[in-house]
Write a structure and sequence with these properties.
about 180 residues, Apple domain-containing protein, signal
Length: about 180
């Protein structure tokens, strides 16, 4: 009976590994073998459904899967978590939650911490460190480099205006946040 259970567990592991590997091949760079075939497969990270963080958003990315979103978090400096809005395929790359703030309830959103996922999702960038504002990029010639992708400085405060961004302020390069002036301004 014990041999049967071990055999069944092995078959389940191999099946899950093959399914997970296929998912990795969909978003890993074609020549990034380390990403496509990671040695450490821990499975899916811990997902908090219907929760999101509305502050300290480093980047907002569109048209990504959840796995691609988590991978972008591993590649982006200072990222500790992501919000993923599956209905919009919208990904927020997040820095630490500001002290005293909590996650909010948001239907259809998923919040997950980077620490609950395997860093092997980053492929060859897994042990590459970039400075604030940068992301690790795999070079076509081999190796890795860092590229600027978000503003290093915090989002400016606008005392006489209210942010009207649906999901909060973000710091993408070449992007703007929308504000509405308060009455009298």
């Amino acid at each position: 009976m014990e041999v049967l259970m071990k055999g069944l567990a092995f078959i389940i592991f191999v099946t899950l590994y093959n399914q997970y590997r296929c998912l990795l091949e969909e978003f890993c760079e074609e020549d990034d073998i380390e990403c496509q075939h990671p040695n450490n497969i821990d499975g899916i990270g811990y997902l908090q459904h219907d929760r999101s963080q509305q502050s300290n958003i480093l980047r907002r990315l569109q048209q990504l899967s959840l796995l691609e979103c988590v991978r972008e978090c591993f590649l982006t400096s200072w990222c500790v978590a992501v919000n993923y809005r599956k209905n919009w395929k919208l990904c927020d790359i997040l820095d630490e939650l500001i002290g005293g703030e909590n996650l909010i309830i948001e239907a259809g959103s998923i919040y997950t911490k980077r620490s609950t996922w395997s860093k092997s999702l980053a492929g060859s960038c897994a042990d590459h460190t970039c400075f604030v504002g940068e992301k690790c990029v795999k070079l076509g010639t081999g190796g890795n480099n860092c590229s600027y992708v978000y503003c290093k400085d915090p989002v400016p405060k606008a005392d006489n205006a209210t942010c009207i961004e649906t999901f909060g302020l973000y710091r993408n390069l070449k992007a703007g946040n929308q504000f509405k002036c308060k009455a009298g301004f």
